[in-house]
Structures are given as structure tokens and as C-alpha cells.
Amino acid sequence: LAKMESFFRTLKVEEVYMSEYRTYEDVSNCIPYFIEEVYNSKRLHSSGVYAPGRI
Which tens digit of pLDDT belongs to each residue from 19-48? Predict the structure, then answer.
């Protein structure tokens, strides 16, 4: 549960609160982009060996 809370806090602070969505389409494009290209690709994750690229 704590990991999900941390993820959603990061999503809100770094993407949602920093953006001005005008349409649902904006949201449906920006949120997945943030998750795949920013959160998953550029963050160190503590689940075993630090990904991405195994540093």
C-alpha cells in the first residue's frame, strides 16, 4: 500500500499539479506518457536491483 501511495503522490506532484488539462484527451495522453517515459524510465526503483538500466 505504501508503494502505491508513493507512486500516486509522485504522479500528482510532478504531473497533475504541474499541468493544465483542458480535455479528457489531454489527461489520457499525458498521464500514460508520464508513467512510461518519466516515472518508469528515469527513476530509481527499490524493487531489487535498481532499474532502469541496472545503473
Answer: 999 999 999 999 999 999 999 887 766 665
List the domain boundaries for the chain.
2-41
pTM listed for this prediction: 0.69
CA torsion 7-3-38-16 (nearest 10°) is: 0
Conformational region of residue 53, where left means phi above 0, alpha means psi within -120 to 50, and beta covers everything else: left
SS (H, E, C) 1-55: CHHHHHHHHHHHHHHHCCCCCCCHHHHHHHHHHHHHHHHHHHCCCCCCCCCCCCC
